[in-house]
Amino acid sequence: MCTIAGVVDEGAQDLNLAIAAEVRAELARRGISVSAFERKVGWPRTYLQRRLQGDPAWKVIDLETIATELGVSADQFKQREVRAS
Fold first, then answer.
1. CA distance 24 to 19
2. Domains contained in the chain, CATH given
3. pLDDT per residue over 39-76, tens digit each?
């Protein structure tokens, strides 16, 4: 049996993983490792790595930090995922 909460959770997880893929791709395009980026923005070791694996979910402030540091719009991460769907 599928519940509404299960559908919402699954959709949120799909979006979370899609955003993670976009963040990973942007870092790769720039030749920046995850650990180097964590050091650059002052995040604890594995902070970004865990989010890129899908747990815990993204925080808006995290996406803003990544976008600002990379010189892109935070909306770009979600927009690419929507266009790919």
1. 9
2. 4-84 (1.10.260.40)
3. 999 999 899 999 999 888 889 999 999 999 999 998 88
